[in-house]
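Q: what does this look like with copper (II) ion bound?
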Amino acid sequence: MKSGTILYTRAVRVMVTIVHGTIALMMLLTVHTAMAAQGGHSHAHSKEHSEPALQLLNASARATKPGMSSSAAYMTIYNGTHQAVQIRSLSSPVAGKTELHTTEMNNGMMKMRRVDNLTINPGDRLELKPGGYHVMLMGLNKHIAKNSEVPVTITFSNGDQKTVIAHATDEIKGQHMAH
Ligand SMILES: [Cu+2]
């Protein structure tokens, strides 16, 4: 009767699979119906979903002269999501280390300091500009030539990872110090 038991077990398994499959299909159909019902009168909602939630805009980087080991990049970070996000980490193929920095006056001296986990509220724009927040590119593995393109990638707390191409220029106003 051993083979009979196996056969029976198999038959049960097949039935369970069929039942599971049917339930999954029914759930899928229910979801589809619900979405179809919603789709008719919520144009604004679908438009919202087609727009990128987090955006890196107008990025530029300081072109370097031979011998310079660090540089800075600037941009606008727009949080188009409905939730506050934090900047978790940064990277760029041109630099050994990439960090978010801010510039502050400290006892009459301009000083730069690393900023971790900076929060950007929903709908807010964070301006990275000379004399303020900036992307610090340290340990450059090559000279950043004028008019070259510098990719900068930012990873956010919601898991989003965005890359922007910063255009290298020697026309950024304001001094930038090396560390
Ligand atoms: Cu810096």
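Residues 72, 101, 112, 134, 136 surround copper (II) ion (CB under 6 Å). The beta strands are 54-62, 70-79, 85-91, 95-106, 109-114, 119-120, 125-128, 134-140, 149-156, 161-169.
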